[in-house]
Design goal:
Blueprint (H helix, E strand, L loop, with lengths): L1 H12 L3 H10 L2 H14 L3 H10 L6 H20 L4 H14 L5 H17 L10 H11 L3 E3 L2 E3 L1 H14 L7 H8 L6 H14 L8 H11 L5 H29 L8 H21 L1 H12 L7 H10 L3 H26 L2 H6 L6 H11 L5 H18 L20 H19 L4 H14 L6 H13 L1 H5 L2 H8 L7 H17 L1 H15 L4 H17 L19 H4 L3 H20 L6 H17 L4 H15 L16 E4 L2 E4 L3 H25 L5 H27 L18 H28 L3 H27 L14 H13 L3 H11 L2 H21 L10 H21 L16 H19 L4 H7 L11 H21 L7 H15 L7 H16 L5 H18 L3 H15 L22 H32 L16 H21 L7 H31 L5 H27 L8 H20 L2 H23 L19 H13 L2 H20 L1
Antiparallel strand pairs: 1-2, 3-4
Helix pairs in contact: 1-4, 3-5, 4-6, 5-6, 5-7, 7-8, 7-9, 8-9, 9-11, 10-12, 11-13, 12-14, 13-15, 14-15, 14-16, 15-17, 16-17, 16-19, 16-20, 17-21, 19-21, 20-21, 21-23, 22-23, 23-26, 25-27, 26-27, 26-28, 27-28, 28-30, 28-31, 31-33, 32-33, 32-34, 33-35, 34-35, 34-36, 35-36, 36-38, 37-39, ...
Length: about 1300
């Protein structure tokens, strides 16, 4: 064989090809094959030998052509077998490629068939010879004609048949990558490419996971030919399916306590990471691919999944896409939350559509998955987190004030999106070390730079980071130290939040603590008031959190114990000793504040009590400080009145008078600290007999002195008359003059002192009758002064005087009202009857309780001790709820009838006001505690204690009974304000019911019954009741039919716009009557707006679904009989709405707001109808289906019923008529009304907008009629409502008049004919 090989090589080197041809002819096919095989296997001179064989086989002769074919047919499988060295195989294929174009058509066809068969049989494992296939196919396409079966085909067609056959056959998973690579070099038409891409994408699921990245890489290279969207969608949907399967397996595994994993999670994540890198690399090179990717997610966020979110975040690293990606994700997040909110608030939508996918969950899953080495995604996650927090964080209100109080549960989509940003960053911080520094730096930068807008969301994030990973944070402590330097310039709220968050770190890091103290000391002498306040805040926080040895353990420590405290306790003995020196040093710094402005002192007084509770060893220093401060203003001479010096409490600057010392707060702080110390020492003395004598004596010293001062103050304050304070009735209290301001300050101080002494004496009295009589004396003085203040401020023309905040503590108010209303013990009966007998005092106690609850509702905390402790305030709330509830339900109203003559709200009403505020506060600020609040009230046997829904419903029934009692009396006994409060409470409590529960159904049935049977003419009550009905109805079923009934009632009550028409008397709901109809109409229109929102949303969803569906798919070609459920629901909703609006449009509504709102809603309805018509135009274009008969009926209804009535209503609105009255007064009032409404209509563009909406609707109906070949315009009448209108009746009258008068009329005619022109000029 070697000889033959050498012979061929030597002959091919020679000049003459004739000899070479002769020699080759002499060899049999087998010999030739053996020679080629041996040469190829040895790898020596194979190229030269092949060249020789091809040189000696001229393609022109049949023998040569056959020999060439033989070479190809033998060498292709040989290269594929894997027996040859890689370089040898590559050389052979290279040579064969060069000679391919010389092959005849039939040879090419045979070779192509050989390839196709080999691929079908799965023999193309190594894919070496596949490089030759594109060349063969290209050569084939160039052939003029080829025999195919019995006929002939052109080369191009033959190639198409081959590709079709190849893509239709089964592929071996091993050769998919080689085939995809090979097809890159094959010229393909668009259909062929689509067919091929489909085939490859279907093969994904059959392939080994590790082979997916290289295949994706080849597909992305193939995308240069086209089908970009299809390829990207296929890749994303494959990984979406994998993720879903992974999640299901995890859930199954958790349920069965087994590990069920077809694909290991880490392997899948690593493959996803690699694929994302490939895609991003491809997008960098081909921007068309990037545009396609973004386009596919822009239409609907429903296509997003954790993988595609990660992919988008990686693409965001390409600068040109960064902004687009973040805008797209921001839009998806906010839209997802809005859709969720819309769906949760409407039973109609819940029944119609499945629960939608949550983009927030996908994003958080992406954060979780990124732990598997997705470094290219983490940067995008950080940016997106901050982008969401910046965009959706709380906005500054007017004058830069923060609009939101402290934390309420995230309710609105914006709040939820902001919270999501925070969660992403917190999770990212915990998982990824490289990005920690950046997250921390960005959070701190924002705290420092965003001084004009609220930063509560960044403070929450920082606080979470500190508590979740304090040790990690210490590595970046330098960044925190840098922030300390800016504290003096930051708003007080930011400083408080920041220092609270940093507390756990200070306990671990001495250097941090030292640098903070340096900053705070400087701040003490800051020129800015806020800087000094910040210093006080910081020092008080430090005092609270650094325990001194021997301090009583306070069970209610507010700082959560974190892992950082483990390190503190190692040297706790040393720490406590050091802490004592440290705390005393801080206290000496704080004493300097006592010479500063009132605001700074106030902060100090409010903080001392908390410090004392947490660090009782500092009692002596704190009490001495307070005592020396009280002595400054106390009059030690026992005979002198008043017992306090008020002059030093104020200061003057120019002609302005300011408060210098908040004396009442100082005494209040002293009283609370003293009381707490006495209580704790009593408790401690019961447990421990012997104690440190010196300290005890010192304690007794300041205690007895303070007690003496307070006793003396009480005695003398009771003796004082207002004249002693220079505050009698003749004194000036206007805030316009400095004397008035001074008197006001004195009055507030004195009233505060009375309140503080009342609290002190109640606690000291321990239910002693004479002591409580003294307390009542104090109250009378307080009451007298407050009455004078009220009277004076009512008269004054200057700014009105607000009621000052009560200085009674929340805990005391809770104890007091419990004692007044619920204390039944015999021993206290006599003493408490003193207080109970004073109606004014009972009212005062209740009104202060309501004031405290209101403060809690507005700000989340109250003044005074324990005001900042949410747990304690919640406990007080529970006690108050119980008392107020008992007071309201158990004391008959007849008892209060006497007080009805006064123009004040009854005590029952105060109780209700308090209860409403408590329920609202609890629901907004701590919804999870609502059940606890309700359980805390005294439940009778009727309700089972453990069932929360039952307890809730028990209270609902109590309030229902109360409302029913109100309504069953006559209209003259009806207390509107109380009824409104009851309805508001029922509204709040009904939110706690699950819409699927039987209690909810009972609630809605009861509400409907009340609305149907109550006929009181009170519009505010009607508004409240109907609002409650609507809020329940939307969660039960669609409110459209309810709206129709209400519209019919309103129409029959107010009458028709055509006075000659007699309206059929209908009365579904008695609550709708002449007085309440306008209020009801406005409410109905608000609900119409809401229903239109839902309908618009459904149409938009259907539109995006239709756009993303492939034409000709199964869903697209639905039979006309089987209308899509969403389309059907939309048509039915709009049908009912049109009928309801048809009633309202014929109603003689009062000119003004109601009319304008109706016109606006009508415009909106036509706009929604236009959207629906556009949807059907789109559907007709893509599906060629017939229009549903329901839709035709809807169009008919709009054209024949609503549109003509709209035009009549426009005429009515413009004439501004209301029912004419006979009296002159009525006539005059009508003229005023007409003028006002005409002005309102001129200012708004409601009428032109409505006409435009109707005409747009008709314009698109014409388009749809053409597209669908259905004449929809047959139902439409020509519009008459233009600027120029002919009113037939007026015309007749004018003509008659013209006949009677002669020439004078002609001049008037001329004027009239010019009028329209004048109008046009105006326009």
């Amino acid at each position: 064989m070697k000889a033959e090989m050498d012979k061929i090589v030597s002959l091919s080197d020679g000049e003459s090809t004739v000899e070479l041809q002769k020699y080759l002819s002499s060899l049999t096919n087998d010999q030739l094959i053996t020679a080629m095989t041996n040469s190829a296997l040895r790898g020596k001179k194979v190229g030269t030998m092949l060249k020789g064989i091809l040189k000696g086989s001229p393609p022109g002769s049949s023998e040569g052509a056959n020999r060439r074919l033989l070479v190809y047919e033998h060498l292709i499988p040989l290269c594929e077998s894997g027996d040859l060295q890689a370089e040898v195989a590559a050389d052979i294929i290279g040579l064969l490629m060069l000679e391919t174009r010389t092959l005849s058509g039939s040879s090419l066809a045979k070779l192509a068939a050989l390839f196709v068969d080999a691929i079908k049989a799965g023999k193309m494992g190594s894919g070496k010879s596949l490089e030759l296939f594109p060349t063969i196919l290209t050569a084939l396409a160039a052939c003029a004609a080829l025999s195919y079966g019995k006929g002939e085909l052109s080369g191009e067609e033959y190639k198409k048949q081959l590709i079709n056959s190849l893509c239709s056959s089964r592929w071996d998973p091993q050769c998919v990558i080689h085939l995809t690579t090979m097809f890159r070099d094959v010229p393909l038409s668009a259909e062929e490419l689509q067919f091929l891409v489909d085939k490859v994408l279907r093969m994904f699921s059959k392939m080994d996971l590790q082979e997916i990245p290289p295949l994706v890489y080849q597909l992305l290279l193939l995308s240069a030919k086209g089908c970009k969207k299809q390829i990207l969608d296929g890749i994303v949907s494959y990984f979406r399916d994998q993720d879903d399967r992974q999640e299901e397996e995890q859930e199954d595994g958790e349920n069965l306590h087994l590990e069920v994993q077809t694909i290991p999670q880490d392997q899948l994540r690593h493959v996803e990471g690699t694929v994302i890198l490939h895609v991003v690399f491809a997008i960098r090179l081909d921007h068309e691919l990037g545009r396609e990717l973004l386009k596919s997610f822009k239409t609907s966020y429903g296509d997003l999944c954790p993988f595609s979110v990660a992919l988008l975040l990686s693409v965001a690293r390409v600068q040109r896409y960064e902004e687009q990606v973040f805008d797209l994700l921001k839009g998806a997040v906010i839209k997802s939350y809005k859709d969720e909110q819309l769906q949760q608030g409407s039973k109609f939508l819940q029944d119609l559509l499945p629960v939608h996918c949550s983009v927030a969950k996908m994003i958080l899953d992406t954060v979780k998955n990124s732990v598997f080495g997705w470094d290219h995604v983490t940067q995008g996650l950080v940016q997106l987190g901050f982008f969401l927090m910046d965009t959706f964080g709380p906005k500054p209100g007017p004058f830069g004030k923060s609009t939101e109080g402290p934390v309420t549960a995230a309710r609105t989509p914006s709040q939820q999106a902001c919270k999501l940003g925070g969660q992403m960053l917190l999770q990212g911080f915990k998982m990824h070390e490289p990005i920690r520094g950046e997250i921390l730096e960005q959070v701190l930068n924002r705290l420092v730079t965003k001084t004009a807008s609220p930063v509560s969301h960044y403070l929450d994030l920082f606080s979470d980071i500190v508590s979740s990973a304090p040790m990690i944070l210490l590595e970046s402590s330098s960044k925190v130290t840098e922030t300390f330097d800016h504290l003096t310039y930051l708003p007080l709220g930011t400083v408080q939040g920041f220092l609270k968050a940093v507390q756990p770190l200070l306990k671990v890091s001495m250097s941090l603590k030292d640098s903070l103290i340096l900053v705070l000391r400087k701040a003490m002498f800051s020129s800015q008031l806020d800087g000094r306040k910040s210093a006080v805040t910081g020092f008080l926080l430090l005092l609270k959190n650094f325990k001194v040895l021997g301090s009583l353990a306070s069970s209610q420590s507010s700082q959560a114990v974190s892992s950082s405290q483990v390190q503190v306790d190692v040297h706790s003995r040393y720490n406590s000793a050091a802490n004592e020196a440290f705390c005393l040093e801080i206290l000496s710094s704080l004493r300097r504040c006592l010479g500063q402005q009132a605001d700074v002192r106030l902060m100090l007084y409010e903080g001392f009590y908390d410090v004392l509770r947490r660090n009782s060893q500092l009692a002596s220093s704190i009490m001495q400080t307070l005592l020396s401060q009280v002595r400054r203003y106390y009059e030690p001479e026992q005979d002198l009145l008043p017992p306090v010096k008020l002059e030093p409490c104020i200061t003057a600057h120019g002609d302005q008078v300011y408060l210098q010392e908040p004396l009442a707060h100082l005494v209040s702080c002293t009283v609370h600290c003293l009381t707490w110390l006495q209580n704790t020492h009593q408790a401690a003395n019961l447990n421990v007999d012997d104690s440190d004598d010196e300290a005890e004596e010192e304690d007794e010293g300041y205690k007895s002195e303070l007690q003496t001062i307070l006793e003396s103050m009480t005695r003398r304050m009771i003796k004082c008359e207002l004249e002693d304070f220079e505050l009698d009735k003749s004194a000036e209290f206007s805030l316009g003059s400095s004397v008035g301001v001074k008197n006001n300050i004195f009055a507030v101080l004195v009233m505060g002192l009375y309140e503080v002494l009342m609290e002190y004496n109640f606690i000291r009295a321990n239910y002693n009758k004479t002591r409580l009589e003294e307390l009542l004396e104090l109250f009378h003085r307080h009451h007298k002064l407050s009455e004078i203040l009220k009277e004076k401020s009512g008269k004054g023309r200057g700014p009105s005087h607000k009621t000052p905040r009560s200085l009674l503590s929340m805990g005391f108010v809770s104890t007091l009202i419990t004692a007044l209303f619920r204390d039944n013990s015999q021993s206290r009966e006599e003493a408490l009857s003193v207080l109970r007998s004073s109606g004014e005092f009972v009212r005062y106690a209740l009104s202060v309780a309501v004031q405290k609850i209101q403060q809690l509702e507005d700000t989340g905390h109250t003044d005074g001790p324990d005001g900042q402790h949410s747990d304690r305030t919640f406990r007080f709330l529970c006690d108050m709820t119980s008392v107020l509830m008992w007071r309201y339900t158990n004391i008959p109203r007849a008892v209060e009838e006497a007080g009805k003559k006064e123009k004040r709200c009854s005590l029952s009403q105060l109780c209700l006001d308090g209860l409403l505020r408590i329920f609202t506060t609890c629901q907004q600020r701590c919804p999870e505690k609502m059940a606890q609040l309700l359980s805390a009230m005294d439940v009778e046997d009727e309700a089972e204690q453990d069932d929360v829904a039952e307890i809730n419903y028990f209270y609902i029934r109590q309030f229902q009974r109360a409302l029913f009692t109100q309504l069953s009396g006559g209209e003259e006994d009806f207390n509107s304000r109380e009824a409104q409060l009851l309805v508001s409470i029922l509204t709040v409590l009904s939110r706690q019911l699950k819409p699927s529960s039987k209690q909810f159904v009972q609630m809605i049935t009861w509400t409907v019954k009340i609305c149907k049977e109550t006929s009181f003419e009170d519009s505010a009550f009607c508004k409240g009741l109907l609002s409650l009905l609507f809020s329940l109805q939307v969660l039960y079923k669609t409110p459209a039919s309810l709206l129709l009934e209400l519209c019919q009632d309103i129409h029959s009550q107010l009458g028709d716009i055509d006075q000659d028409v007699e309206v059929e008397k209908q009365c579904h709901f008695a609550i709708v009557n002449m007085k309440t109809a306008t209020a009801a109409a406005l409410l109905v229109l608000t609900q119409v707006d809401r229903v239109l929102d839902e309908v618009d949303w459904l149409i938009a969803r259907k539109k995006s679904q239709t756009a993303s569906e492939k034409p000709g798919s199964a869903d697209a070609s639905q039979a006309a009989g089987q209308q899509d459920p969403v389309e059907k629901a939309v048509t039915l909703q709009l049908g009912t709405l049109l009928t309801a609006l048809n009633e309202l449009v014929q109603t003689a509504l009062l000119p003004g707001n109601c009319t304008v709102t109706l016109l606006r809603e009508l415009s909106r309805t036509y706009a929604t109808l236009t959207t629906l018509v556009k949807y059907y135009i789109q559907a007709c274009a893509s599906q060629h289906g017939s229009l549903p008969s329901r839709f035709e009926k809807l169009v008919k209804l709009s054209g024949s019923h609503l549109t003509p009535q709209c035009y009549s209503f426009i005429t009515y609105a413009q004439s501004g008529e209301s029912n004419p009255g006979d009296d002159k007064k009525k006539k005059k009032r009508n003229e005023v009304n007409a003028a006002a409404s005409a002005k309102l209509l001129r200012e708004t563009t409601a009428i032109p907008n409505l006409i435009f909406s109707i005409e747009q609707y008709e314009k698109y109906l014409i388009t749809l009629s053409k597209k669908s070949k259905v004449n929809l315009m047959q139902y439409m009448k020509l519009s008459t409502s233009r600027d120029f209108r002919i009113n037939a009746a007026t015309l007749d009258a004018a003509l008659q008049e013209q006949e009677e008068t002669g020439e004078t009329q002609e001049s008037q005619d001329a004027e009239e004919s010019q009028e329209p022109k004048r109008k046009k000029r105006k326009q």
